[in-house]
């Protein structure tokens, strides 16, 4: 199965909202990760919409058909990072999206 | 503290092998599958495979079949990932990560990463 498809980049200004899409998710085992330079990924969203404890409620997930989305509301400068989606597949393997670079202008 | 601690950076020549360790602490080692994910320079995340620490069962993605071996040592709560026949394209940061099915199959704990340079 091919990698999930994400836009290469998105941008927004502080206080605005941005949405990152992830196409190719046939199941509800979708998770989202944030990665700052030089750091490992951090889990933001699991099971499409659920936030682990400690993750800001400015991050939310949704899914429509085969496209999952991550929305970041009230952008902060520290939200500038790479974002990856991931999904478990029917082939019993995990696949990741190519990643989206968020720039906060 | 729940954490995965990985071994240090490695520099290898083409054709050599590399073995990375990932020591778990703060949780029941045998209760979670541990996975390896790699990230090439400026690239995305690439899932390599997983191991069940309790019984050593493994699943590898086809891309690495025949070149990757994952093992576990329950006496030290450590899993190992060996990658053989290294080539320059294997230069990457290799992460181990814990999978939690209670979180819908998400990777909730990540090691700090091990940089492997093939040159």
Structure description:
By secondary structure, chain A is mainly beta. Helices cover 0% and strands 46% of the residues of chain A. Chain A is built from no helices and 9 strands. In chain A, the strands form 2 sheets. In chain A, strands 1, 3, 4, 7, 8 and 9 form a 6-stranded mixed sheet that branches. A 3-stranded antiparallel sheet of chain A has the order 2-6-5, with no helix packed on it. Chain A is globular. Chain A starts with 8 loop residues before the first strand and ends with a strand. In chain B, the strands form 2 sheets. In chain B, strands 2, 4, 5, 6, 9, 10 and 11 form a 7-stranded mixed sheet that branches. In chain B, strands 1-3-8-7 form a 4-stranded antiparallel sheet, with no helix packed on it. With 119 residues, chain B is mainly beta. In chain B, strand 7 and strand 8 (78-83) form a beta hairpin. Helix content of chain B is 0%, strand content 52%. The radius of gyration of chain B is 13 Å and the shape is globular. Chain B is built from no helices and 11 strands. Chains A and B meet through strand 3, strand 7 and strand 8 of A and strand 5 and strand 10 of B.
